[in-house]
Amino acid sequence: MENEEKPHLKNRIWGANREKLSKRPDYPKIVLFAALFGTATSSYPVTVLSASLPRVAQDLGTTDDSVTWVLAAPLLAFAVITPIAGKLGDLHGHRRTYLASFLLGGVLALLTALSWNVGSLIFMRTLTQAATAAAGPSAMAIILSVYGRAERSKALGLWMAVVALSPALGVVTGGPLIEWLGWRTLFVVQGLLVVVALIVGARTLPETQKQSDVSFDIPGALTLGLGVGALLVAVNRGIVWGWDHPVVIFAAVIAPLALIAFRAVENRTKMPLLPPKLMAKSNFSIPIAVQAILQAAYMGAMIIAPFLLERRWGFRPTVIGLLMLPRPLSFAIAAKLGGTHDLDKGARRVSVTGCLVFALAMLIAGVGAQQKWLIVFILGAGLAGAGSGYIRATIANAATSAAGDQDIGVAGGSLNMLQMVGGTVGITLATAMLGTSASGSRFLAIHLAAGITALSAAFLATRIKEPTD
């Protein structure tokens, strides 16, 4: 009997701690810090892992185009699982969903360190990302629940900044560890940080209102995952194996059929992943489309950076990671700035500006890559981070405002889903274009393609309507 009472006693103690904290005038900032710390642990390994991909490929005896799936596959899993995870938060409460996500994610991150080949690494990374998928929309919902509408842009800007700074911290702390103890250490550190985030969240984060009429669009998730996954396999493997390879042909046939089926499912299901009524709102669909398109360009440029720095200059992982720091640092600064400017300049102006800055950055970085001018390339990469970061808070605020407070979880899930799909497409296309080339002209072409993609996002952003209260 005494053992049975201990969990309840623990819950009462933590509940009393949260109740005491909730009476403090700075409680929203405490919630913001706790949620940010947790979300940061998920993005912690991204940059340093990207910088280490050539080393990982060598250690596991695989090719560069195969090892990039260590990033691409988890992004796809995140894209498919996130909307379902957002609905889990709506149904069971975002605090409970957030904590459960981190508990499972921490265990899986530690197990990832035991990967024995590239297949197991991709599999474990994908499971970890799927497990932590709920953290994003739940963290957003929790933050928005304690901030008024007028303050949300600034809070979201700070959130985006911390998410961007976390990979930078990963470079500073993880780079030397990888050089010293190997890349597996990165996942051990991440797993331990997730445990800390779990404890901090349990003691501070408030519960959100639960909804009883939430169901899950499993057929939608399956058809979307199958369609996008098949498309990526067809593009990625087609260049390597040839377009007449049976697997490539099969994937190319399955992709459009699955995506057509996804659209049909979304029109009929009660609780779709991408609600047609919500997508019909231009002030919701246009901002998230802008984000998805720019994310494809951003991730495509980011994924080729470590291969560029290794093939053109011969740098090691730690140096590569340090040279990639300007991108997340400028992203963080610009994200906070964009959150402030959203209130003054409006969503349309902020979004168009960010996309145009990114397009210019791609031209600069591409020229630097072709001419082998390191300083010019780093300048372009840093400017790319600023352009992408500048629009993040604005897009998130525009999408969630259009959806309304009752659908924050769905809106956050939809935004994250399309953003991850865009990133996965960008990674796949960029690595397929690159192959094993070390040509400066090839790197220039990829950057110019990313710049043109950003210009299309800027054109679409001109159609964003300013929200009216």
Structure in words:
The chain has helices spanning 2-22, 27-43, 46-51, 53-60, 64-67, 69-92, 94-112, 118-131, 135-146, 152-181, 185-204, 218-241, 246-268, 276-279, 282-313, 317-323, 326-345, 347-371, 374-403, 408-434, 440-461. It is globular, with a radius of gyration of 21 Å. The chain folds into two domains: 2-217 and 269-461, Growth Hormone, Chain: A; 218-268. The protein has 469 residues and is an all-alpha fold. It is 83% helix and 0% strand.
Describe the SSE topology.
Elements lengths: L1 H21 L4 H17 L2 H6 L1 H8 L3 H4 L1 H24 L1 H19 L5 H14 L3 H12 L5 H30 L3 H20 L13 H24 L4 H23 L7 H4 L2 H32 L3 H7 L2 H20 L1 H25 L2 H30 L4 H27 L5 H22 L8
CATH architecture of the largest domain: Up-down Bundle
Average pLDDT over all residues: 81
**What is the CATH superfamily label of the largest domain?**
MFS general substrate transporter like domains
The major β-sheet equals: none
Poorly predicted sequence stretches spanning 5 or more consecutive residues: 1-10
Short description:
Helices cover 83% and strands 0% of the residues. The chain is built from 21 helices and no strands. Helix 7 packs antiparallel against helix 11 (185-204).
Question: What brief labels describe this structure?
Answer:
469 residues, mainly alpha, Growth Hormone, Chain: A, 2 domains, globular, disordered N terminus
